[in-house]
Design brief:
With 151 residues, the protein is α+β, with helices and mostly antiparallel strands. The chain is built from five helices and five strands; from the N terminus they run ααααββββαβ. It folds into two domains: 73 residues, Winged helix-like DNA-binding domain superfamily/Winged helix DNA-binding domain (Arc Repressor Mutant, subunit A); 46 residues, 2-Layer Sandwich (Dna Ligase, domain 1), CATH 3.30.1490. Helices cover 36% and strands 14% of the residues. α2 packs across α3. The longest helix has 13 residues.
Length: 151
């Protein structure tokens, strides 16, 4: 008898996943649903290895190759975005609104940076004359706030 695994998603996200996959004639398998759910849980821009470790708690026999296949599908369906930072492993972000990323050198964490329409327009002004951007990928690399504690 198969053990039932909790791969549940909030209804809106489950519907988004089903619709995006259906448009490409794909099914919302337990693996895809679980991988998508893990990315949504913390929204901490995990790597494929991070996702594999988390998913294995729910689906112990899942392989890293299956994780990569699921991630490729989720990216292709525009449910998650790949985030490339310097020479670090690719990370995955479920935030599909226009935004930038800040990568903290000290902690290694990645944070979303909101970009409103005014800022996006200002950035697009730097494009060569007559060109338009379909997407903007902007990332910052730096350090977090310094905390001074006096003992």
């Amino acid at each position: 008898m198969k053990e039932e695994v909790n791969t549940s998603l909030p209804e809106t996200e489950r519907n988004r996943l089903k619709h995006a996959l259906k448009c490409r004639n794909l099914r919302p398998t337990r693996q895809r649903t679980c991988v998508y759910g893990v990315i949504l849980e913390k929204r901490d821009h995990p790597t494929a290895d991070d996702i594999h470790l988390r998913v294995r708690k729910k689906l112990p026999s899942i392989s890293l190759a299956t994780i990569y296949n699921c991630l490729d599908t989720l990216v292709e369906c525009e449910l998650v975005k790949q985030v490339h930072l310097d020479r670090a492993p690719t990370r995955f972000c479920p935030n599909r609104t226009p935004h930038a990323h800040f990568h903290c050198r000290d902690s290694g964490k990645v944070y979303d940076v909101s970009l409103d329409d005014e800022r996006l327009s200002a950035i697009e002004q730097f494009l060569p004359h007559g060109f338009t951007a379909d997407t903007i990928e902007l990332s910052f690399l730096g350090r977090g706030p310094v905390t001074n504690t006096i003992s």
